[in-house]
Amino acid sequence: MKSVRIAGVLMTIGSALFLASTVAAQLKSPDDVKTGLRLLVQVSNDFKRQITAKNFPRIPREFKEYTESADAVRTAIQDEPAAFKAKVETRLKAAVAAFQKVSDMSSKTPDADKLMAEHGKAVAAMNALFELFPPELRPDPNAPAGRGAPKN
Predict the structure, then answer these.
(1) I need a labelling partner for 24 at 20 to 30 A (CA). Which of 32, 43, 59, 87 fits?
(2) What is 76-100 written as a DSSP string?
(3) 104 class by beta-carbon count within 10 Å (0-12 exposed, 13-18 middle, 19+ buried)
(4) For residue 41, how many other CB atoms are within 10 A of its CB?
(5) 24-64 pLDDT tens trace
């Protein structure tokens, strides 16, 4: 009985890895996707730096940069299948909305602790977006500021 479960788990993991590698191989612009995702992380790290420095007036400008980075992801996947684009768009909208909330809070509630907590939620939404892409295209969203993409 246990060997059947283990075999099932291994098949599931193998299928997921195969699917992820298949998606990477099928992406029409993997370099553009990787760049777009890296930009999202860099701006997210900028949000965090501005919150830590209590430079609240700068945060709405960071949000503008975040939306520009989101547009770069949209452009990178524009030639992908409609079903994939729809999944990406749903999660991308959620991430943008989460960062919008941080931006809005920065002028209404300039409290670094509350903003950092909300930023954590925004990063979680961004991570959910990254899960749609193969690991080799994902930057590390928890990397130190300015180092969102590993050097290859």
Answers:
(1) 43
(2) HTTTS-HHHHHHHHHHHHHHHHHHH
(3) middle
(4) 24
(5) 448 899 999 999 999 999 999 999 999 999 999 999 999 99
Closest CA to 140 of 129, 148, 131: 148
Structural domains of the chain, ranges and CATH numbers in brackets: 2-137 (1.20.120)
Q: For 126-148, how does the pLDDT look when each residue is reduced to its tens digit (9 = 90+)?
A: 999 999 999 999 987 666 554 44
Per-residue b or e along 50-89, where b marks 16 or more CB atoms closer than 10 Å to that residue's CB: bbeeeebeebeebbebbeebbebbeebbeebeeeeeebbe
Report d(CA 100, CA 131) in Å as an integer.
21
What pTM does this model have? 0.77
Query: What SS3 state is found at 6?
Result: helix
- Tell me if 134 sits within 8 A of 33, measured CB to CB: no
Q: Are 150 and 140 in contact (CB under 8 A)?
A: yes
Q: Contact, 123 vs 47, CB < 8 A?
A: no
Nearest residue to 126 (alpha-carbon basis) of 14, 16, 118, 152: 118
